[in-house]
Write a structure and sequence with these properties.
The protein is of the alpha+beta class. Helices cover about 30% and strands about 35% of the residues. The two termini are about 25 Å apart. This is Dynein light chain.
Length: about 110
């Protein structure tokens, strides 16, 4: 496990959700080589979709820029080993379900 080696850059997630993201990243790195960025991203994205509902996006790599619109409370950018990981629940527009706990949107540059 890689506990204690993750460095969080930006986040607006609750602490428990942040910990889930870090734990899943560590688990993914136990299952995949660091060169398999797409497989790591797929693993984390699918697990967050399962745990927190659909619409999650995950980007993994050593050098990338981003500017994304995400649901408030659903964004984390962190580094673990040599990889940067961006995980967020995306949005296609301003339409929001009144029962959706992640209804507000925010744009962040990471």
């Amino acid at each position: 496990m890689l506990e204690g080696k993750a460095v969080i850059g930006e986040t607006d997630m609750l602490q428990t959700m942040q910990q889930d993201a870090l734990d899943l990243a560590a688990k993914a790195l136990d299952c995949f080589d660091v060169t398999e960025a797409t497989e790591i991203a797929r693993f984390i994205k699918k697990e967050f979709d399962r745990a927190y509902g659909g619409g999650w996006q995950c980007i993994v790599g050593t050098d990338f820029g981003s500017f994304v619109t995400h649901c408030y409370g659903c964004f984390i950018h962190f580094c673990i080993c040599s990889l940067a990981i961006l995980l967020f629940r995306g949005s296609t527009g301003p339409e929001v379900d009144a029962d959706d706990q992640f209804g507000a949107f925010e744009t962040v540059k990471a």
